[in-house]
TrEMBL record:
It comes from Taenia asiatica (Asian tapeworm). It comes from the Eukaryota. This is Tyrosine-protein phosphatase domain-containing protein. Pfam families: Y_phosphatase. Gene3D superfamilies: Protein tyrosine phosphatase superfamily (3.90.190.10). InterPro entries: Prot-tyrosine_phosphatase-like, Protein-Tyr_Phosphatase, PTP_cat.
Length: 111
């Protein structure tokens, strides 16, 4: 689904070859608390198209007894959001996401 939505929203992606996974997709108008209470991705094409921003929730991995990183539990709280730096036409979406998700810190790594 996300690949299709990303293709449909090419003008909203800085890099077309980097798209979020459905299960970690941040949607505008859907705070992370909603994503946690309904962890399975239940995204319709229309919803994803209207609410799309190229951003993913990032959860800290769990660690096994030998120190190996394991996949985070879907119910664990996201600690970060990874996204692309906004384009001129997505600055408002970016700021909306920051406000809705209550991001306390923004770190930008870009050229």
């Amino acid at each position: 689904l996300t690949k299709w939505v990303a293709r449909e929203n090419r003008s909203r992606n800085r890099y077309g070859d980097m798209v979020p996974y459905d299960q970690s997709l941040v949607l505008l108008g859907r705070p992370w608390s909603t994503a946690i209470s309904h962890p399975e991705p239940q995204i319709t094409v229309g919803e994803a198209g209207q609410s799309y921003i190229n951003a993913s929730y990032v959860r800290r991995p769990e660690y096994g007894s030998r120190g190996e990183a394991l996949m985070a539990l879907i119910t664990s709280l996201p600690e970060y959001i990874a996204t692309q730096d906004p384009r001129e036409n997505t600055v408002a979406d970016f700021l909306t996401m920051v406000l809705e998700q209550r991001c306390p810190l923004i770190i930008m790594l870009s050229e």
